Amino acid sequence: xxxxxxxxxxxxxxxxxxxxxxxxxxxxxxxxxxxxxxxxxxxxxxxxxxxxxxxxxxxxxxxxxxxxxxxxxxxxxxxxxxxxxxxxxxxxxxxxxxxxxxxxxxxxxxxxxxxxxxxxxxxxxxxxxxxxxxxxxxxxxxxxxxxxxxxxxxxxxxxxxxxxxxxxxxxxxxxxxxxxxxxxxxxxxxxxxxxxxxxxxxxxxxxxxxxxxxxxxxxxxxxxxxxxxxxxxxxxxxxxxxxxxxxxxxxxxxxxxxxxxxxxxxxxxxxxxxxxxxxxxxxxxxxxxxxxxxxxxxxxxxxxxxxxxxxxxxxxxxxxxxxxxxxxxxxxxxxxxxxxxxxxxxxxxxxxxxxxxxxxxxxxxxxxxxxxxxxxxxxxxxxxxxxxxxxxxxxxxxxxxxxxxxxxxxxxxxxxxxxxx
Length: 421
Known about the structure:
Strand content: over 45%
Number of helices: 1
């Protein structure tokens, strides 16, 4: 099969995409011109995605899509490096899905370091977790799901973090004054739900909506070979409940047919979580587990896995890591996630060459239905400034109760050309 990033694209589509790209290019040039007088860095990426099958739903884009992103990074410090400021905006322009064209502030945070504690205030991103295929306990930042279906990309979250660093461990206290709604692909986007998500009608359990104050507390430490993280979160659930709105006729009292779109509902929750990682020579043992309480019901979930590294494979400089994980959610088939009873197997190959070549491949298999999804990711440096990334995802045999059933015709190959400055 011959891959063409422009296949299926009409001339008017390409012209519209270039018109969208022009403001982004201007911003990039302005930031790059400031590199000589400030601590600027960042990347510009051109993305081409090819879908191997026709769209599953009407109005979705055809078999090719172009996109561009720009993420500059600014960092400065003063007061003998005890104070610093970090700024990372993000811009995306997509030629098909207008909801994927968006701007976000990933980071805009001031940090002050003291002898045994520090404060960080502003917009930031925080990562919790140790496992590979699913970051189960990662709850602080909202998912930017128009970026990728894997949930790795996160929106910037307004927060204040107080960190106390002691001999007995590190204690982080999070105050989150504002909630970020999840992003969703538009009607023309691929890898979306069968019905479009209408974020204009978003509902909240809290009367304060997005201004409900959320809080979290996390303790972390290491004991010999063991790294431990124990946390509690109280606030708005980052995972919305999606359902079509239903109305009642005021005259007859009958229930009207549901609308042909979905509305996000964000409820309040309490989540207690545990992260464990043990390093025993070439073997890593990993665990993430949580207990979540909400009005819609309480549930428990966990991910357990091992990863073994082979160094200097076949006498070369390459290292190979092989990993196996089991994903469990006690809501079983009613869980709004693909990780309810699944086994994941993967391999990570680092060539350790001058081009920083890496390859990551994995398969996630549902133990109940046999449905599976395959992911392949690779990257390689071209020169000092250019990187190329390749990503592919394939979906096969999903059951009707599996959320991934919506992606059965969305197998894709994605090529990213990245310029670092």
